[in-house]
Amino acid sequence: MKNEIKNYLKEQKHRYVSGDSLKHQFNLNTIKLQKIIHELRVEGEPIISGGNLGYRYSTDKQEIMKTYLSLKNRAMSILSASNGLLTSMERIDNV
Question: What residues contact residue 10 under an 8 Å CB cut-off, 6+ apart?
Fold first, then answer.
């Protein structure tokens, strides 16, 4: 399934494909689609996301960098939230 999605995105050239379209075409739910996109990126496939536009296979370094920075910012935000939870546990122990 993963290779089929990668190849499909490659075939679309410079066109974004919505998540809903991919879910319908490959009979996936949102979580499974996101997992597959994540796995492809981990494997080094340049799948970019364009906000509400969907996903696209890109060969443009600037576009790839934009998605990279967006993912990095999301990861940092999640890390901050997890650190906040640790802080809350320390306060609970001190009560």
Answer: 57
